[in-house]
Design brief:
The protein is mainly α and about 100 residues long. About 75% of the residues lie in helices and about 0% in strands. The chain has one domain (about 10-100): 434 Repressor (Amino-terminal Domain) (Orthogonal Bundle). It is built from 6 helices and no strands. The protein starts with 8 loop residues before the first helix and ends with a helix.
Length: about 100
């Protein structure tokens, strides 16, 4: 089975909110008072969604700040899993070895 690409919250913001609603990044920036450079970097996948940004987006789109932070957390966890999978497997093996010796 082919693994799906990890999707940055900025892509979800663009594809699921801005495009369908006909809102430009500039308009979102002005309406939410989020600096235009921050919006641009989020949309490009080069910047995280912070608590401040999540609060502003949730107020604007009438959803939860946890929605936005959850998207960011899911993205970050998957990125970390992809980058450091070897160390996580090693930790599991060490834990399993210690657990078996204690039994």
């Amino acid at each position: 089975m082919e693994k799906l690409a990890n999707i940055h919250p900025g892509e979800i913001l663009m594809e699921e909110f801005l495009k369908p609603m006909g809102i430009s990044a500039y308009r979102l920036s002005k309406d939410t008072e989020i600096p235009q450079t921050r919006i641009s970097q989020i949309l490009k996948g080069n910047r995280r969604i912070t608590a401040d940004t999540a609060m502003r987006l949730s107020s604007y789109f009438e959803n939860s700040p946890k929605f936005w932070l959850g998207l960011q957390d899911d993205y970050d966890i998957e990125e970390e899993r992809n980058v450091n999978s070897e160390i996580f497997n090693k930790i599991r093996m060490i834990r399993k070895t210690h657990h078996n010796t204690l039994s």
